[in-house]
Prior knowledge:
This protein is of the alpha+beta class. The protein has 25 helices and 34 strands. Helix 17 packs across helix 18. The longest helix is centred in the last third of the chain and has 24 residues. The protein is globular, with a radius of gyration of 34 Å. The protein starts with 12 loop residues before the first strand and ends with a strand. The structure holds one RNA strand.
Amino acid sequence: GLHTTPEPGPNGAFYCLAMFPYPSGRIHMGHVRNYTIGDVIARYQTMRGKAVLQPMGWDAFGMPAENAAIKQGVHPATWTFDNIAHMRTQLKRLGLAYDWAREVTTCDPDYYRWNQWFFLQMVERGLAYKKHATVNWCPSCETVLANEQVVDGACWRCETPVTTRELSQWFLKITAYADELLAWCDRLPGWPERVLTMQRNWIGRSEGVEVDFRILGSDRSIRIFTTRPDTIFGVTFLTLAPDHPLVPALTAGRPEEPAVNAFIERVAAQDPRARAEASTKEGVFTGSSAINPLTGRPIPIWVGNFVLMSYGTGAVMAVPAHDQRDFEFATRYRLPVRLVIQNPAGTLDPEGLTEAYVEEAGRLIESDEFSGLAPAEAQARIAAAIETRGHGRRIVHYRLRDWGISRQRYWGTPIPMLYCERCGVVPVPERDLPVVLPQDVPFTGRGGSPLAESPQFLHAPCPTCGGPARRETDTMDTFVDSSWYFLRYAVWPRTPDRALDPDAVARWLPVSQYVGGIEHAVLHLLYARFFTKVIRDLGLIRIDEPFSGLLTQGMVIKGGAKMSKSKGNVVDPDQLIATYGADTARLFMLFAAPPDKDLEWSDEGVEGIHRFLGRVWRLVAAWVTAGEGRPAPAVNGIADGAPEHRVRRAMHRAIHRVTKDIEDQYHFNTAVAALMEYVNTLSEFRPDDGPAVGAAMIEALDTLALLLAPFAPHLAEQLWFERGHPPSVGRRDWPVADPAWLTEARVTVPVQINGKLRGTIVVDASASQEDVVAVALADPKIQGWVGGHVPRKVVYVQGRLVNLVL
RNA sequence: GCCGAAGUGGUGGAAUGGCAGACACGGCGGACUCAAAAUCCGCUGCGGGCAACCGCGUGGGGGUUCAACUCCCCCCUUCGGCACCA
């Protein structure tokens, strides 16, 4: 009954989503942890009365399927669907309350046709475009990679060092949303700060000024980008990237030309990573000079290995006095250093700087009418002056680059474009979607786009002129598939004629709680945010962000390293479930660490959880055997301290703590600890302790089943059945703690002398400070510490602590 | 270098201004058993003491407070992200 999604009712909707897996073959412990966390949240919200959508699907396109085809001769589709069938069985064994009817499989043409449709919408709006560019290339995967997929200079999937290639590729214009993606980082309170920080860093916004420096003896100029226009009077030279397009013109026919060319060749031959790590700043004079537009003074133009063509304009104004890189460069080549900001203490010596002064504090000097200003104000004034005098403009630069989505692989969504001899690049008309992946493709592993090997696929008539045309043979990055799948889940029944049903999406989205690995902090999570905004601007949805809450669970590690085949430290979930059952697997994952921290695998820990579940079973079994069908107890008027009172109090306390731990930041480890304490308390009582205890116990054990239901659903259901209740415990209301039972009439209060614990006293919880101090001073042990002194000061925190300051 | 997270017993971890170490693992001792397993009970931060107790203790140093793992300042270490980004 939990596995069908109800319509959202008056109690509201809750969309609980775990990142869908790649069907690699078998589930691993990371999946078990991820999906258990999500399932606890979904089951809890169900019992809280929310209409809950918890779907599951398959991120089914990707390289491993193709590699299997190359190595074993099995078709990627066969391999993928076999894996899905197996993994679905594995997930079902864990007792995850998914609505399997809504399953999404991205390699299904009914799904990927909408990838193609969204792509065409983006082409129409200029958000998808083709350009010739230097792109990241993985020699092992033999395909292009997006910037986000290069991790430490290596392929995100296979860790092969990435090289570059010059290729004509399709890009999605994520930079058009850079500002909005950044701005919303401040409006996602349900996201972990570290993920937001990573996204902010990745987008890398920087405000500055572009300034044109006219080349001496030429009508051309060099455009530089700076974030420090306040230092422009300190510019003593310009530095261009070695591959800056103006370099040849600057050196042509000059005596410096051979030296410059030799330098450029030397830098180009360097591996980009080695270049980044080489901290020595080297360069060469071009022989040309430029004019500083604010001072009118001529300055030499250099080429430097530390200037990157890929950022800003590929040219920088060098201010050695206020930029450490420029300072090192100037020192090496004996170029002038011009101090234009004096520090607040006035201690900087213009003739004897030993390092750049980069702080934005102090006053401008030697800067004409701007002298005397603070750097922050000078930045605004000088930027304005540059604009009004026509030397440049204020501009914002981003580190974020457009998303290259062309992949030279088979097992992905075909890019729905045609190349006509007469009409050029032509989109496939919407009515012709989906462009289906052909079956007759040889898997040779030789590289190149495999789709080009299928003549039937390759040749198609041009939709515009009917003449011969060739299909695009690259496929889409698989991250396109996962950029909107969470929207498709909400559409039910599925609409074969359109990607999204706006009403269905409005009913469920944004995702209330998303659960997945931190490794997607700037991959999937950035792309999905981008797609959501594009789809919003297409008018199909009204949300700005896809995921309200985000929980990034930690890794499962063993022996200090992430579980992996190569490390040989994997523990197979099937083995775990076969030996101990799904509930032990689930509870261990929840108890061993807070969800966002790494979890160290422990065989002994698993045993411990298994023992706990055994104790729960024996506890309930003992009482069921002894006292079936007892009526609900009446416990009012029972004296404080009576055993049945203790049972009742423990029950309300457990309800309170488990509820609070789930609600506050999903502290499942302490929620499970609270359940253990509860069970420990209930275990103190025996069926022959009398009818009052028996009545309280029966109620307490029912509550135990309810509290256990989200965590260990199988055992909870069985306990519920043993108690004679109809199924299902997971559909009953979550219990509510009565605040009256959470407080005690008499409390044990620690007594401190001068802040040090010296004893405890038992007082009425409502006792006044005077009464409590009197009891404390009457205590023989306390008297020994106080001696004959009168406390100089007394602090009493009601029911918590008393501190006597002597 | 910049940004972020973290540092607590033998181990995983708890406590977010009020009894540090909940809960669990491991260890030690005991019960049951011919024996073992399972189960149950007790003890378990470090040092001192026969003991009741005492001293010390949350990476290091300083500060605020009656009271600090918790707040403030400085420093160290680890992990993660970005990075000759102009």
